[in-house]
Amino acid sequence: MLEKLINQFPNSLIVKNNPLPSNEYHWFKDEDNHQFIGIPNEELSDGQLELLQALFPHVEQTDGFQVIAGQANAWYEFLFKGEDSPLFKNEFRVIQFYLSSPSIEADGLGEALVNIFEKPAAIGMLSPHQGFIIEEKIDFSISNEELASAIEAFEGDFYTNALFYIGSFHLPDNFRERSFEQEQKYFRFAQQTMLKDKVVSFDKVLPVFLVKELRENPSLAFKSSMDQVISIFQGDPDLFSAIKKYIENHNNTSLTAKQLYLHRNSLQYRLEKFTDSTGIDLKSYSGTLAVYLACLEYEYFKDEHFA
């Protein structure tokens, strides 16, 4: 039943925990599989909505909002209710986060997040699992790498897994509702696909999102053309790790060899062997791009690819 539903509504979303409040989706609970499916409002007719409500429990989008720190209520009204923006002159960004454990106490959570982000303007929980942070742009904002390290410690302290989506900076007067809606969509996608990454942003989510779209579009030849590369990775996962690290290091062989504890010549031999097998030149931009997309498909969708 669920598979037929997804085929009927290909833009639907599936999440394992209570979904974020949203004006864009109708959410239904799949009690047999302990998950939720969200279907875009615009894709549902009145008759289809009535039928689905008869088949699945319909998740009412109640507020259930909790202020953790700062003027979170005002920001909640601005972001989700369309009210006027809070009195805020500086650039800000919305950081959305997901916590696998719903048992974290508000006071402890607020203290930990304030310590990580130093001066958040607001922290609010939309559900027991999901919340947002409003961060003002300052001269020394925490980097994504520093944030990832801090979140690892946070996970250990609170016995939870976490995912943070770092939004773009905006001025309140220039903030566009559509921009935040897009960030919400990327955050939901990351929840489905990229939970192990801990910290994601537009530039990290977009390539994985594109790979998913390419591989699921039968009119495009991406999937079949990358099968050879992905099969090589399947047979040699260490080669996959080496090539992905090599590309992320801007094709720096010495740095990559050092990080992988390999002799430089050993790494060079493996890269050349890969080029000989595939005919793809990793020193060219187009070759690097094609192989990196294959790396992302193998990393995030290998279970589906080889199912």
TrEMBL record:
Gene3D superfamilies: PucR C-terminal helix-turn-helix domain. GO terms for molecular function: DNA binding. Residues 243-295 form the PucR C-terminal helix-turn-helix domain. Keywords: DNA-binding. This is DNA-binding PucR family transcriptional regulator. The lineage of its organism: Bacteria, Bacillati, Bacillota, Bacilli, Bacillales.
